[in-house]
Design a protein that fits this description.
- The chain is of the alpha/beta class and 360 residues long.
- The protein folds into two domains: 6-131, Rossmann fold (3-Layer(aba) Sandwich), CATH 3.40.50; 154-357, 3-Layer(aba) Sandwich (Rossmann fold), CATH 3.40.50.
- The chain has twelve helices and 14 strands.
- α11 (332-339) links the parallel β13 (319-323) and β14 (345-347).
- α2 (40-50) packs parallel to α3 (66-76), α7 packs parallel to α8 and α7 runs parallel beside α12.
- The longest helix has 12 residues, at 15-26.
- 49% of the residues are buried.
- Mean pLDDT is 89; it is low at 135-157.
- The modification 4-aspartylphosphate is found at residue 58.
- GO terms for molecular function: phosphorelay response regulator activity; protein-glutamate methylesterase activity; protein-glutamine glutaminase activity.
- Residues 7-122 form the Response regulatory domain.
């Protein structure tokens, strides 16, 4: 099938960056740069006039910053937006994703250095717009009620987790659109959830710790960037560090399955890993340790990461849930799992949060 070139508006207050980004995008026969804007006001005018298929956006701009631009754009004219932001403004990236941006490209500094990796990444993420499915309005569903608890220091909360019986191991695989879905999911999980959650989110390495911290502030569970050798405890979630892969294993001689001493393994990807982090590897290890108490969650994203791992979860007697087509920004990963016949149920991401919250 032949597609018309994607029409892209480049928004950045730096003329140098605008020129570089436009040149990179114009190097693809599938992309046409139709406009360039130096601030949010000009970008809104051009967006209304040109009706681009996608927009690349710098968040730091004079007159009208990227956040204000996003709020107005999404209210007036919802358009796929790819954030182009420096490593030093990680929190801003996640705020922009929550405001409706689709994905982001990280640049090493204020200027957009056009090395081969960044060239490839920005073209790939703009072309991904062809596969986006706009989120349907979701029915308002209240998050599960959380029992009121007296305030206590985080150290006390952490120590209490060590005495809680671990009853579920939940592995999550996600890519484009995943951060926003996960923030909503974690907002619906109570702090007394009797399990551990492991997240393989395709994301640059310098952003995963900030993402874990944002999830940690969002809901009741403690969320951390996983460390090699860390003990797995209930009421806690672990985000795989970027450019690494994560698995879990029981310490030999400590017990069997959930009764044993479960530790996290974080290491470099293997030659056979097609995705990094690998949801397949994570799911297989969770299936091996958790058996029927293993749960695999496949969220939005391109490709088919998680399908083989989901097959292992099902073979072990566990449960696999895929994000439904109605709510997935990109239906690639969950759709591949559904077509492979390895999914027990498809749910919108809000219902996935409720599903996890009700595990007991």
């Amino acid at each position: 099938m032949t597609f018309a070139p994607l029409r892209v508006l480049v928004v950045d207050d730096s003329a140098y960056n605008r020129r570089n980004i436009a040149e990179i995008l114009s190097g693809s026969d599938e992309i046409e740069v139709v406009g360039k804007a130096g601030d949010g006001d000009d970008a809104l005018r051009q967006a209304a006039q040109l009706r681009p298929d996608a927009i690349t956006l710098d968040l730091e701009m004079p007159r009208m910053d990227g956040f204000t631009f996003l709020r107005i754009l999404m209210a007036r004219q919802p358009t796929p937006v790819i954030i182009v932001s420096s490593y030093s403004h990680k929190e801003n990236v996640f705020k922009a994703l929550e405001l409706g941006a689709v994905d982001f490209v990280a640049k090493p500094d204020r200027q957009f250095t056009a090395d081969a990796q960044i060239r490839r990444e920005i073209i790939q993420k703009v072309l991904l717009v062809r596969y986006l499915r706009p989120r349907s309005p979701m029915p308002a569903a209240p998050a599960p009620a959380r029992p009121a608890q007296p305030a206590s220091p985080r150290a006390v909360q952490e120590s209490s987790r060590l005495g809680v019986s671990l009853r579920h191991l939940v592995a999550v695989g996600s890519s484009t659109g995943g951060p926003t879905a996960l923030l909503e999911i974690f907002n619906r999980i109570p702090d007394r959830f009797p399990g551990a959650i492991f997240i393989a989110q395709h994301m640059p390495d310098k952003f995963t710790r900030t993402f874990a911290e944002r999830l940690d502030r969002k809901g009741g569970l403690r969320v951390v960037e996983a460390q090699n050798g860390e003990q797995v405890v209930a009421r806690k979630a672990y985000v795989c560090p970027g450019r690494m892969c994560m698995e879990i294993a029981v310490t030999p001689g400590s017990g069997v399955g959930l009764s044993g001493d479960i530790r996290i393994r974080v290491g470099a990807p293997a030659p056979g890993d097609r995705y990094v982090p690998s949801a397949d590897r994570l799911f297989r290890s969770v299936a091996q340790v958790g058996g029927s108490r293993a749960v695999g969650i496949i969220l939005t994203g391109m490709g088919d990461d998680g399908v083989n791992g989901a097959r292992a979860v099902r073979a072990a007697g566990g449960t696999v849930v895929a994000e439904s087509e109605d709510s997935a920004v990109v239906y690639g990963m969950p759709g591949a799992a559904v077509r492979a016949g390895v999914v027990n149920e498809s749910l919108p991401f809000t219902a996935i949060g409720d599903f996890i919250a009700l595990l007991s």
